[in-house]
Structure formats: structure tokens, C-alpha cells
Amino acid sequence: MYACAKFVSTPSLVRAGSRALYRPVAAAIGSDARKAECASLLEPQSILASQQQVAVRSFQTSAVSRDIDTAAKFIGAGAATVGVAGSGAGIGTVFGSLIIGYARNPSLKQQLFSYAILGFALSEAMGLFCLMVAFLILFAM
């Protein structure tokens, strides 16, 4: 209501604007035929007031919609970034298992290392995919 009060000066206009917010947009704007019928009945001041009501309504709707979209982008990007932490945990598990494997059987050093590199690459790829999705959510939508 404070945003309305900044743009509208008289209290009667504020009350009329509040009533206009409850109506559907089609009813607030109206058709051309309906405007022509009502034009003779309305005073010039009330026409100006109705135009201000529509302008205030569209301004508020677009700002709120933009805020919700921005918040949804940030929430989605944050949720997608959680996968990067899983990638770090996966890489730590792979190399921790590599060290344990070396300690148990040093003769399989080359084969264990190739498996560790494969596990590292797959885990890192999943983390990069999560990061890519986060950037797509933030900047592509």
C-alpha cells in the first residue's frame, strides 16, 4: 500500500485503486465499445483516475513478478550448486580408496591408478554439469 501512496496523492484515489486491484484485468481495462458507452457518463477527472489505477496496477504486478522470478532463479541455482559439493566428496573418496588400495597391494599400482583417474573424471564431470546447470538457470532464463 505504501507503493500506491507514493504515486497517488488523494485518499479517494487510493481507495478506488484498492478496489481496482480486486477486479480482473479485463474488467479494469474494458473493451472499446464499453468505453464509448461510458464516456458520456464519466467525468474527465474520473477517466484520468481510472487510467492512473490501471498504470499503478501494471507497475505493481510487473515488479512483484520480476522479484519472484529473480528469487526463483537464485533458489534454483543454489540447489544446482549443491552437486558440486557432492563432486568434491566423490573425488576425496576415490583418492582415499586409491591410497588404501596401494597399502593393501602395491603390485596393482598401475591398474588402481587408472581406475582412480577414471573415477576422478566421472566425479568431476558430474560437478561441472551441476555448475553448468546453475549458470544456465541464472543467465539463460
Would you give an account of this structure?
- The protein contains six helices and no strands.
- It has helices at 2-7, 11-22, 25-29, 32-39, 44-104, 109-139.
- By secondary structure, it is mostly helical.
- Residues 4-8 have low confidence and may be disordered.
- The chain is 87% helix and 0% strand.
- The longest helix has 61 residues, at 44-104.
- Helix 2 crosses helix 5 (44-104) and helix 5 (44-104) runs antiparallel to helix 6 (109-139).
Percent range for β-strand residues: under 5%
The largest sheet is: none
What percent of the residues sit in helical stretches (DSSP H or I)? over 70%
Count of DSSP-assigned helices:
6
Mean pLDDT level: 75
**Rg, Cα atoms, Å:** 31 Å
**Counted beta strands:** 0
Low-confidence stretches: 4-8
**Overall spatial form:** rod-shaped
Helix/strand-derived category reads mainly alpha
What is the N-to-C order of secondary-structure elements (H for helix, E for strand)? Answer: HHHHHH
Could you tell me how far the N terminus lies from the C terminus, measured between alpha carbons in angstroms? 31 Å
Primary descriptors:
single chain; 141 residues; mainly alpha; rod-shaped
Element layout with pairings:
Elements: H1 2-7, H2 11-22, H3 25-29, H4 32-39, H5 44-104, H6 109-139
Helix pairs in contact: 2-5, 5-6
Short description:
The chain has 141 residues and is mainly α. It has helices at residues 2-7, 11-22, 25-29, 32-39, 44-104, 109-139. It is rod-shaped, with a radius of gyration of 31 Å.
